[in-house]
Design brief:
- 2 copies of one chain form a homodimer.
- Chain A has about 260 residues and is of the alpha/beta class.
- Chain A has a domain of about 90 residues.
- Chain A contains 9 helices and 8 strands.
- In chain A, strand 6, helix 7 and strand 7 form a beta-alpha-beta unit.
- In chain A, helix 3 packs parallel to helix 4 and helix 8 packs parallel to helix 9.
- The two termini of chain A are about 20 Å apart.
- At the A-B interface, helix 7, helix 8 and helix 9 of A face helix 8, helix 9 and helix 10 of B.
């Protein structure tokens, strides 16, 4: 069993600081967030530049080498709906410490991001959705099959080259859909597929003191069901401890009394 | 899906205070521990009087009515290897708020505790062991079948009247056996069987600051796999929050912003 992959989510255009840094091509605060996440244990750094319709290509051409130069070529997740921007990023990406991840394809309009990832020999996140979020596991399975076939036709190894995202649904409002979410992670795990998701979306709208408790429990349950990676805030020490502990219980890493500090 | 049952573990002869109270027939500290556990959310109170070979019958005859009188007939788990003592406790037990639970039968010498429970129409905890702890899930399954058959022959409904305990194993030393433990909980859940276990045993021997993290993660994973009850310390608020949150995620209780305080 391979190690659970932590994808750091803190370089995101939704942050005003990052938004301004991207707009003014000021790499320093972006590099800073990459470094702190790597120090906290992130395996990959997600670089979400937003839709970036106008200048996405320029931004990726600039930020990917800047980030990699400053972080000894940390592995990156290129995150935007602008496919040309992702291509531009892949062209300048150095895979020495890990293949790039394209974020993301889906079973609808963004199916061709699978081809893009195949062209560059990298990994792609496949969202199990088409227009909206999946209504049930029948829909998830339909989208999974669509992307599996497409990936195989493109020459990919679907067990290694695609991380399928079952899509976390907000508990407050879709409480009755969480069991299905966990069941689908298990289904994918039993199929030998890798998976990822944005775990903390599930606790959206809950009181501030409740959210971390929900995040930790859902994280443990998801890893128990077979989740192999997640997009999250690696500075959340409690959540990182939950991940490390899950890895110990499932025997993916060897126990030592100091395992939380490693 | 029925609510997860919390069995409070704090009345245990291993505690010097409880040991002395049992020996001197001083009910007050025992009643106090029952009350605080019930206030903290325990559904059942385990009453572990130890082997009690000499005076187990007397102790149970005395403590069961004392406890029930002081707690508006709280449901109890009668916990000793002395079968006569359990019988004596069952004879004076008031089931108005929940059937008594016999703790415990196993697939070996204590198989006849199933008959005792059947005779009194109560619940029995069936440890999936014979001489020692189960080596693997093949052994767990063998012991499960033995107890299932015995319970059915005794006229019990094995889906309602037996809580099967897969036996928590210490992670430090048996790290590679935890996945099997979780798998067996899932197997039992899929068979429609109820389950219980002493969760915190798994973290025995770990550093003090690590144990609660391990307890919480294993608890979430176990409930995610289908565990329906556990014997634990209900005064551990973090663990109780994990249980409540697991119940929310699995849609066993309805979400409200205040669910942790309910």
């Amino acid at each position: 069993m391979s190690k659970f992959l932590v994808i750091g989510e803190r370089i995101h255009v939704i942050s005003p600081e990052i938004k301004e840094a991207l707009a003014t091509r000021n790499a320093a605060p972006i590099i800073e967030r990459a470094k702190t996440q790597l120090e906290a244990g992130a395996d990959y750094i997600d670089v979400n530049i937003g839709p970036a319709e106008r200048d996405g290509v320029d931004i990726m051409k600039w930020i990917v080498p800047e980030l990699q130069a400053a972080t000894d070529n940390a592995p990156l997740v290129l995150d935007t709906v602008n496919q040309n921007a992702i291509r531009a990023g892949l062209e300048v990406y150095n895979p020495v410490n890990g293949r790039a991840i394209v974020n993301s394809a889906d079973a609808g309009d963004r199916l061709s991001n699978i081809d893009l990832a195949a062209e560059f020999g990298c990994i792609v996140i496949g969202l199990l959705m088409k227009k909206g979020v999946p209504r049930d596991n029948e829909e998830r399975d339909e989208y999974l099959q669509t992307m599996l076939e497409h990936a195989m036709e493109a020459g990919m190894d679907p067990a290694e080259d695609v991380f399928f995202d079952p899509l976390t649904l907000v508990i407050k409002g879709m409480q009755e859909k969480q069991q299905e979410f966990l069941d689908f992670i298990r289904t994918m795990s039993e199929m030998g597929l890798k998976s990822t998701c944005g775990l903390s979306n599930a606790s959206n709208g809950m009181p501030k003191h409740v959210r971390p408790i929900v995040d930790n429990v859902l994280c443990a349950m998801s890893i128990g069901a077979g989740l192999t990676s997640a997009i999250l805030n690696p500075l959340d020490k409690e959540l990182m401890n939950t991940i490390k502990t899950s890895e110990i219980i499932l025997n993916h890493t060897l126990y030592a009394d100091s395992y939380l500090d490693i």
